[in-house]
Structures are given as C-alpha cells and as structure tokens.
Amino acid sequence: MSNAPLPLINPVPLPLDKELVLKVIPMPADTNGNGDIFGGWVMAQVDLAGSVLPARHVQGRMATVAVNEFIFKQPVRVGDILSFFSSVTRVGRTSITVQVEVYAERFRSQGQYVKVTEASLTYVAIDDEGRPRPIPR
C-alpha cells in the first residue's frame, strides 16, 4: 500500500470573510457504522462553533433555537483536522443567526482543504428563567 497522499475532491481556499472559531480532530470513537465520522458528532461541533460569535453579543445565557440549514457536503474521516469558520448573518432583538462552514485538512493532504459541512443556526439570548431577553446593543 502506498503512503502517497490521496487526491482531494475540490480543494478550496479557506474563507477570508469568516472568523476561525474552532479547530478539532475527530477520533475513532466518533465514527459511525461505515467508519466515517458520525454526523451527529459533526452537528454538535458546529453548534459549539456557532455559539462563539453570538456569545460576544449576548453577554450572558443563550440557547440554540433553530438549525435553519445543515448540509453535509463530504464525509469527515478520523484524523482530519477540522477548521470551523463562522460569521454573523443577522442580529435581531433577542436572536442572532450565524453561518458556519467546516473545512477538512485531510490527514494525508496537509495544507489542502475541502469544505465538508455548512450550516445556518439561530441562537436566542435568555434570562435566568430561560425566557428570551433583548440582546445588549
């Protein structure tokens, strides 16, 4: 078996209009029955990454209220270095919507990236009783 890097499908540059908010490497315990990374694990990481920018605005408790869109573009594999980029797309009175894009740097193709997931999520600022509250301006 050759140790040559596998060719990437559609390698892309990393986004310049979003902020890097999380980097993580999935491990064997995160796999599904096919040996790829379980989609639910990816979704949890996207939710964590998506909360970073809203937390700066909300200045307190918040909750995920909607996953508006979630697209798995390519599988994630054990050992991929995942980079999560986010940007705020909307700020309302009590809620914030963000776009998250996930890029994989494949274990054998270091320095080249492929977009594996993109999502849109909405978070709402909440008070101590869990009720929506205004976002500080």
UniProtKB/TrEMBL annotation:
UniProt-listed Pfam families: 4HBT
InterPro entries associated with the record: Cytosol_ACT, HOTDOG_ACOT, HotDog_dom_sf, Thioestr_dom
Matching SUPFAM superfamilies: Thioesterase/thiol ester dehydrase-isomerase
Enzyme nomenclature, EC number: 3.1.2.20
Molecular-function GO terms, alphabetical: fatty acyl-CoA hydrolase activity
Source organism, top-level taxon: Bacteria
Enzyme class: hydrolase
Keywords: Hydrolase
Record-annotated HotDog ACOT-type domain positions: 16-129
Family recorded in the similarity comment: Belongs to the acyl coenzyme A hydrolase family.
The protein, known as: Acyl-CoA thioesterase
